[in-house]
Amino acid sequence: MMRIALLLFLFLPYAFSAQVAEFEVYFPFDDDFLGGKEKEKLDREIFSIPKSKIDSIQIFGHCDSMGTDEYNLELSARRVIAVKRYLISRGFELNQLTSNYYGRRRPKYMDDEKFGLNRRCEIVVYHQPNIPFYSSMRIDDLELKKNERYILPNLHFVGNQVVPMWYSFEVLSDLLTVFHRFPSLRAEIHGHVCCVNDKPLSDERAAFVYHFLLQNGINRNRLSYKGYGNLQPAFKETNAEEELQNRRVELKVLNIGDAPLELPLDYTPPDSIMIVLRRIDFIPNKAGLYPNARFMLKLLGESISDSRNIHHELLVNTNGISERLAEQRINEIQRQLKSFGCNEDQFSVAAFQPVQQGRKKQPDLFVKMSRR
After folding, report:
1. pTM for the whole structure
2. What's the pLDDT score for residue 15?
């Protein structure tokens, strides 16, 4: 049986510093009562981040300028305590929460119509990107040998999708570079999935990498692809990290050839890729998504909300629907992604009219990933 070069990856904590999410909750005049809407806001904002990824939460209490300094300082402290109590009731430990209070000394809103917003607590959430592990190995580090298979390091996919995780965008560029530098390299691309034996998904992931290389200048006679479902796991899947590692693509080297060439000085890697979104369908003639489709979109949203230097443009298929329904669907996708913690600078949503090929039903959604 052919040996699989699984590579002795040194899995390191992801090297990026903690990310920060900031928002505010508001209080009634002369009160420390944390209302239902503000509790919902705390839940929505904080739990859009996986709880295991939250390092700490800072809470800063404030008041308007009505009353004495001493009274307002005490009131802002009570507002902080109200937020702390609620977060502890939602499962956070006291040592995860730090705070300070300023009374009326640090007003933020000076206009008359916004004056009441100074009755607030500012919430700052420090959290890690939603990435279980990261390898220091890169494709350029692989010593490719004929008749061996290699896991492509850090090429991971959003669950149930062909969409690469945002940090995997550069992995595809690195793979393309290797094929340009080794003009005699021929290889099979093998797709694998975790958990359940979804062979079509493993086929599609392998095909995605195959077509990415073809579209960027690699000759078809150098490539082939195949999916294996979950029948060849590289890891036991005893935890979420091992499941993610099994959602992988391998390169089986058929021929490697001579020493690598230098790339032309004018070589530029691709700056965008387009992917079909699987199983994210709108209810016919409606703006809403099926419940399962919303879950699929949430998995993508988790990757988008952690993304850096990659912009995700979601494209709504508007073929055969009215302008009004198209606008409603665009607004719905925007609303959903924001509810999953995605910031406006990380994504956009637009109308798209793909070319019809045969009578096969077209997907409702696509995503275009681009360098920023």
Report:
1. 0.65
2. 38
